[in-house]
Amino acid sequence: MHIFGKILGAFFGFLFGGPLGAIFGLFLGHQFDKARRFNQAGFSTGGFGNGPSQAERQEEFFKSAFAVMGHVAKAKGQVTQEEIRLASIMMDRMNLHGEQRRAAQDAFREGKDADFPLEQVLNKVRISSGGRFDLLQFFLELQISAALADGDIHPAERNVLHKVASGLGFSADQLERRLRMHEAAFRFQQGGGFGGSQGQQQYSGGGQWQQAASKDRLADAYSVLGVSDSADAKEIKRAYRKLMNEHHPDKLMAKGLPPEMMNVAKEKSQEIQHAYDLIKKEKGIK
Where do transmembrane segments lie in this chain (predicted)? Predict the structure, then answer.
């Protein structure tokens, strides 16, 4: 427990300002202790000093991503075993083992802390990413994916995601658009809104389900690309190329994406490609 700053702050505050000074000193000491604790955990809240290396920026991005995941998970109240399981799934998607996995777990726990400095950490992410839109978008989408891993985003999680988006420089409308796209992507991965045993039961009822599922899956494919079903071939191709350019794993890596997150970037680009292929087939786009 970090209380050194509080003790000194309260002592000198009382010495120079009496009881009111002690209260003010206690507050300043608390801020000092909080900053010290997160510095020791790898989340410095100030600048980079003489400038970080690429590896240091990637490490900052990596730790911050899992810390913010923990903070989003905590939004619903007490973090349950389900939230921990979903975080573990994200770690599995990144093939994290040994020291890397322990670092992610430690960061996730830091994010659950009541004093977690969300604004400072997000500001740090903006600095470590060099303000690159693609990396900031990836960071935000990573938080959305983690929150949506159980198929639903709790209102409290949604509120925190809005804070995360704002801290990264995205508007509320931009976040809501990405939420819609990710919700559609989740359904698209599940097979048009029917997943698991429910889909099998409905499929066994006859060809009517197959037609409905295909229609739902196609609607989700359009949402994945962020276009309407009335979009022409030119608009669809433009949306596809834009998304692929923003999510291309090699380009993200070149801009500073941590190598541990390459698999997630690959999955996203494959998802975009599959949605585009389905729309191309439906519309006869060459």
Answer: 6-28
Q: What digits encode the pLDDT tens for the residues 190-210?
A: 764 433 333 333 333 444 444
| Residue in this structure with the two tokens 């890397």, named with its chain if needed | 100
**Other beta carbons within 10 Å of 123:** 15
Per-residue pLDDT at 175: 95
Q: What pLDDT sits at residue 45?
A: 43
Q: Strand, coil or helix: what is 133?
A: helix
- Backbone φ and ψ of 188, nearest 5°: -60, -40
Compute the 3-state secondary structure of the chain and give helix, strand, coil in percent, each to the nearest 5: 75, 0, 25
Residue 49: band (very low, low, confident or very high) from pLDDT cuts 50, 70, 90: very low
Query: Which long-range contacts does 132-137 make (Cβ < 8 Å, 24+ apart)?
Result: 132/255, 132/256, 133/246, 134/246, 134/247, 134/251, 134/252, 134/255, 135/61, 135/252, 135/255, 135/256, 135/257, 136/168, 136/169, 136/170, 137/170, 137/178, 137/246
**Backbone Cα Rg of the chain:** 22
Tokens (6 digits) for 9: 């702050």
Neighbours of 272 (CB within 10 A): 23
Is pLDDT above 80 for 14? no
DSSP string, 256-283: T--GGGHHHHHHHHHHHHHHHHHHHHHH
